[in-house]
């Protein structure tokens, strides 16, 4: 085995043999635990429930209904097959004009109609995953750094770093102010990077936030823009959850903010978007790079050859997204369903004394389990996480995998399952907390926890989780 590893390091590229992919984290370990023993209401009722996947399955019926009513939108139906030849032939990397136009309009609508997007600046990519990597390739060289407010989406470790060689420098946000990004934290991260001789090329963040489920207020966005403008570095806003906002305050896009501000270098502003969350279509792999910088648009467009969206998908979406009546109804109904799901889930948690960060967006809650930690450390968090995955059989994601710097926070997704499964998940949490409360008294709760809902002993044993430091490896090296 050792020999193979050594052999491979000589045979293969550094990229192929590096572990920068980020797969070695509890975030993905939890997914593997689910894959080994997936819950099914009848075939495997004691299996692991997947609560680690930020997927929106709540409004698929509306899309199905639209597809049935609009068979001509698909080239695979007798009503639409006349367009087959045109669509099947080679399409260049600009994308179908009607697709770019429909996406630009939809992006405006997803931001409350307060901003307009230029179809000429819409560049396609394979999901936001591809879009985020493309933008890194355009803005940074290997070794350059991007500041990223933490906790942050674990996929960033793969998407932004792995193939580009870019380094991520966390901007530490704290629970004491609901993890808001402050100017002080930005300045500190910038200084830390400089102390490590890292050239900072920009700030990247997701707004609405994954994992917090919160939206950034106007003042914070303005201060962020002032920060990057003063330093003359880039700002990349991943707005993949722009329309996944189900309650006030309304979402404010970076595009809206920069339009209001004066003396801002727009060449520094870039937006990433996708159809994966707001339309619930992650399988379609539709990602968008939208940049105000002409050179970036040109370069990203050339790069998009490596991750084009199939013209069949473009064709279907062009038609669906330009149906204004449908998109209006979809967005408002989807927001209602998300609000209702969020409320029933957080209410269920509250009933057993579990709180979440107050949120108004996203497909998840940022659950506060600090009171259940055996010790307030990341080892304590890992111990609790193992119990939750192995015994309670819920795949939730520990805060450390989001680079959170305070142990005890967990992200729990609530929109990727039906009501019945969610009820079962809540039942398991109820039982677990009840058991915890009774066992905690004699201080040996973790050893004694065996939950009666499962007749099996825990065999899930998520492969031994690598405890991700809440600090960047860089900053650790420095300390
Ligand atoms: C903030 C953020 N960016 C990007 C992605 C990747 O999205 P896509 O499926 O469009 O590649 C996700 C998916 O969870 C995400 O949460």
UniProtKB/TrEMBL annotation:
Official protein name in the record: 1-aminocyclopropane-1-carboxylate synthase
The keyword Lyase appears for this protein: yes
Matches recorded under PROSITE patterns: AA_TRANSFER_CLASS_1
Family label: Belongs to the class-I pyridoxal-phosphate-dependent aminotransferase family.
Pathway terms, separated by semicolons: Alkene biosynthesis; ethylene biosynthesis via S-adenosyl-L-methionine; ethylene from S-adenosyl-L-methionine: step 1/2
Organism from which the protein derives: Perilla frutescens var. hirtella (Perilla citriodora)
GO molecular function: 1-aminocyclopropane-1-carboxylate synthase activity; pyridoxal phosphate binding; transaminase activity
BP terms from Gene Ontology: ethylene biosynthetic process; fruit ripening
Keyword S-adenosyl-L-methionine: yes
UniProt superkingdom: Eukaryota
First-tier enzyme category under EC: lyase
This enzyme's EC code(s): 4.4.1.14
Catalytic activity: S-adenosyl-L-methionine = 1-aminocyclopropane-1-carboxylate + S-methyl-5'-thioadenosine + H(+)
Residue ranges constituting the Aminotransferase class I/classII large domain according to the UniProt record: 49-429
Cofactor field: pyridoxal 5'-phosphate
Cited Pfam families: Aminotran_1_2 (PF00155)
Keywords linked to the UniProt accession: Ethylene biosynthesis, Fruit ripening, Lyase, Pyridoxal phosphate, S-adenosyl-L-methionine
